[in-house]
Design a protein that fits this description.
Strands 5, 6, 7, 8, 9, 10, 11, 12 and 13 form a 9-stranded mixed sheet that branches. Strands 2-1-4-3 form a 4-stranded antiparallel sheet, covered by helices on one side. It is α+β, with helices and mostly antiparallel strands. The chain folds into 4 domains: 11-174 and 190-214, no CATH class; 224-348, no CATH class; 460-627, Nucleotide cyclase, GGDEF domain (Alpha-Beta Plaits), CATH 3.30.70; 710-773, no CATH class. The longest helix is centred in the middle third of the chain and has 53 residues, at 350-402. It has helices at residues 11-26, 29-52, 59-83, 91-101, 108-117, 138-152, 158-165, 179-182, 187-216, 224-237, 258-269, 350-402, 411-449, 474-481, 485-502, 524-538, 542-545, 551-557, 592-607, 615-619, 623-628, 693-699, 701-708, 712-727, 730-743, 748-759; strands at 275-281, 289-291, 320-325, 343-348, 460-471, 506-511, 514-520, 565-580, 585-590, 611-614, 630-637, 642-648, 771-773. Strand 6 and strand 7 form a beta hairpin. Helix 2 packs antiparallel against helix 3 (59-83), helix 14 (474-481) packs across helix 18 (551-557) and helix 25 runs antiparallel to helix 26 (748-759).
Length: 774
């Protein structure tokens, strides 16, 4: 007996050689081009089938090619799982599986038996006596979208093209099994891996978007075939003469003439999709239900007529739509005469299917282009932004680690890295200052200047001008704009913060559209100018005025919406300090004056003015500032048991535009006007004049134009009316206020006093002191 000589080589090497040969064949050009062509065919094959012919005669050829493609995909998955390392259960393995499964709905020999197991018929254009009445609804519309979404799964095959044309370029990250080796990889390797991972994420994101997009889109529902069939049913039934039959009586007469009947059939046949078969009561045949074979111009397609679609019908079943109408009285089929009272209409939706196929081809090309451009772009960006800079930094650090004396040779590179670090630190500092604000940064800076974090310490108390500004109807604006509300409030914040800083103020906090602003207590006039500028800039800024035409705003507020801001100002003490714990800390501002300003915000609507100033604030204004304000009454705050006078500065919605022309023969020029800067009247010579608030009340265009809008005689009349109101002489007050409203129409304080007197029935409340309670 001959003995088999032992194999002198390694069996493992033999297996590796076989595996390598098979892998080379799979990755070779022949197999790659072949599978790429197969993938392209399954991407466009079903759409080509729909577009190539309106008949179903040659569909079986396409179905055979789909079966061949399915077999090739299964073989490919099997061979790759055996011979390609790290393929099984990897990213492309699951993409291949999904691509293969998505082929099944395109093969009727596999699809139909599967649905029959669950008693579901995907495409059925046959009419049955027990069929339920059908019309298009939103529910049916979403069902169609779900089917469309399933068909979009085939777009995952685009990713197979990406795989085929990038074979051999992917870095096999899985080959590195030792984690200690990963730390020693060069930046170029990691950059390529980052590019590959990013591209895969884009692939997944695009595919998920395509799958979910049909369900998220809104569409129209065409109920014309159903309601048209209903009209034809009752019109045709009007010709019946049997009083025992459903819907008939001895007084029944034809609704239309014979020619009108045929005209209605023609209208129905051309209203939506092409009509193939019509089964309704025939008005010209005593209302008996049956086939109506013709109209004036329409003729029944006999090969597709009948309750059961004939086998010789050349139209595809999935391109036939059956519409059913049954009178609502006959739903339970218990009323006499309802036997077999059911109308049918069958339409050809082939043109719609072909249109959808054209769109699918365009979408497929578009998505393929996105994936191709994205993969190339990410690779280039990774090389430019990640690989090169990190490689340089890696070389510098490595050189310094090996020999610190080489720092002189790398001084240029080191300087670059230091500038980057310095810039990064500056950005972090800027971010913190923007987060905390000017005062908040000082508070937090004091806190973190200590060696240890100490939150058990007293706050800092100081006297200041305190103002709260809020957008009117902010809750409704949030409801209208929703996600866009952040853009809206940030545009307003830009103006509020800029005007505040321009006039010596500090923006401390922003809570749901309520801005807390402070000034030094000797800057009341600056504060008033700042608030005036905020109102003017809001009504002048083009990006804010654009909300007049925002569809979401127009729906809620109409075409004349203007951003209105309510403002209050008071002078009092405020405590500043860090609030929180070692887990979360932020600068805080606590003061009863803040609560007072919040109370005044609620009184803005009562007095019908956008700005309320307390008597304490008014007393600290300079002479010109006081002259620009007017007193509008007294209030008593119940919680504080405090009575104070209220003042306002009359603001208008129409503000002057900035003048960029030369002023005073070129001595002054507004080249780049900043937000909140004065807009100087053209006739004023301001050479050598400093911009102080006292001067601005004389020559600033915003302030002067707003004051000019108030008739000179109005102030005296209003003052008399206010005195009569507060003294309890309401009869005279009403007459005086009526006279004032003739001079200054729709003046808020005048209307407010009149409404208050009307609410009291023109009777002075008991204990009246001339002050309203809020």
């Amino acid at each position: 007996m001959n003995k088999v000589a032992p194999y002198d080589g390694s069996y493992r090497e033999f297996q590796e050689g076989i595996r390598k040969k098979v892998e080379d064949i799979i990755d070779g050009k022949v197999v790659t081009v072949c599978m790429a062509c197969v993938t392209m065919w399954v991407l466009f094959g079903d759409d080509i089938r729909t577009l190539s012919s309106k008949k179903k005669d040659n569909d079986y050829i396409f179905f055979i090619t789909y079966e061949i493609c399915l077999a090739l995909f299964l073989i490919e998955i099997f061979m790759n799982s055996i011979f390609i390392p790290h393929y099984k259960f990897a990213f492309f393995f699951w993409l291949d599986v999904v691509a293969t499964i998505s082929l099944l709905p395109d093969i009727p020999g596999i699809r139909d038996p599967f649905f029959n197991l669950f008693g579901v018929t995907l495409y059925d254009a046959d009419a049955h006596f027990d069929s339920d009445p059908v019309r298009n609804t939103k529910k049916l519309d979403y069902t169609d979208r779900a089917i469309q979404m399933i068909r979009y799964v085939r777009l995952v095959r685009i990713v197979k093209l990406y795989k085929y044309f990038t074979k051999g370029t992917d870095t096999k990250f899985e080959d590195v099994e030792d984690e200690s080796k990963i730390d020693k990889m060069d930046p170029e390797y990691l950059g390529k891996k980052l590019s590959d991972v990013t591209t895969r994420r884009v692939i997944i994101g695009v595919l998920l978007m395509l799958l979910l997009l049909p369900l998220l889109q809104s569409g129209t529902v065409d109920n014309a075939p159903y309601f048209g069939l209903q009209t034809l049913f009752w019109t045709g039934r009007s010709g019946c003469t049997d009083p025992k039959a459903f819907g008939c009586s001895v007084t029944t007469t034809n609704y239309v003439s014979d020619e009108g009947w045929y005209y209605m059939i023609d209208w129905y046949a051309n209203a939506s999709y092409p009509l193939l078969w019509l089964y309704i009561p025939d008005m010209l045949n005593e209302g008996f239900i049956g086939n109506v074979s013709h109209g004036l111009t329409w003729t029944e397609v006999s090969s597709c007529a009948g309750k059961t679609v004939p086998s010789d019908c050349s139209h595809r079943v999935e391109e036939l739509e059956l519409v059913i109408y049954t009178p609502i009285q006959c739903y339970n089929r218990s009323i006499h005469g309802c036997e077999e009272i059911q109308a049918y209409a069958r339409f050809d939706t082939g043109e719609h299917s072909r249109s959808q196929s054209q769109n699918n081809i365009i979408i497929t090309f578009f998505v393929g282009a996105i994936l191709a451009v994205a993969s190339v772009t990410f690779a280039q960006d990774t090389q430019k932004i990640v690989i090169k800079p990190v490689t340089k930094m890696h070389n510098v650090i490595k050189s310094l680690a090996e020999d610190p004396l080489k720092i002189s040779e790398e001084v240029t590179e080191a300087d670059i890295k230091e500038s980057i670090l310095e810039e990064t630190i500056n950005k972090i500092g800027t971010l913190l200052q923007m987060t905390f604000g000017q005062k908040g940064s000082a508070v937090m800076g004091t806190l973190f200047a200590e060696p240890e974090l100490d939150l058990v310490k007293l706050g800092n108390k100081e006297r200041a001008v305190i103002s709260l500004c809020t957008v009117q109807d902010f809750a409704s604006i949030i409801d209208c704009l929703q996600e866009e509300v952040l853009v809206f409030i940030n545009k307003i914040a830009r103006i509020v913060h800029t005007c505040t800083t321009r006039w010596s103020g500090t923006a401390c906090n922003n809570d749901l559209g309520v801005f807390l602003i402070t000034w030094p207590d000797n800057k009341a006039s600056d504060a008033l100018v700042s608030l005036i500028k905020v109102s003017a800039e809001l009504h002048r800024a083009t990006d804010i005025m654009a909300y007049k035409s925002n569809p979401k705003i127009v729906t809620k507020f109409g075409d004349n919406y203007l951003v209105d801001i309510a403002m209050t100002a008071h002078i009092g003490w405020i405590i500043q300090g860090p609030l929180g714990s070692a887990i979360k800390v932020a600068p805080g501002y606590i003061s009863p004056s803040i609560d007072l300003c919040k109370k005044l915000l609620t009184a803005v609507d009562e007095f019908r003015v956008p700005m309320l100033l307390t008597e304490e604030f008014y007393g600290n204004l300079d002479e010109k500032g006081q002259g620009a304000c007017r007193r509008i009454g007294n209030i008593t705050i119940q919680e504080l048991s405090e009575t104070m006078g209220l003042y306002t500065f009359d603001l208008t919605d129409e503000v002057p535009l900035p003048d960029h022309r030369r002023v005073a023969e070129g001595q002054f020029e507004l080249e780049k006007r900043r937000i909140g800067d004065p807009i100087i009247l053209n006739e004023i010579d301001i050479e050598g004049l400093e911009f102080t608030p006292e001067h601005l009340f004389l020559f600033d265009n915003d302030i002067v134009m707003m004051q000019r809008s108030i008739p000179s005689q109005f102030q005296d009349i209003f003052k008399k009316g206010l005195e009569a109101f507060e003294s309890g002489n309401w009869t005279d007050a009403k007459q005086i206020l009526d006279e004032a409203l003739k001079i200054k129409v729709a003046d808020g304080p005048c209307i407010s006093m009149q409404e208050f007197m009307e609410r009291c029935g023109m009777k002075i409340p008991e204990g009246w002191t001339g002050s309203r309670v809020i």
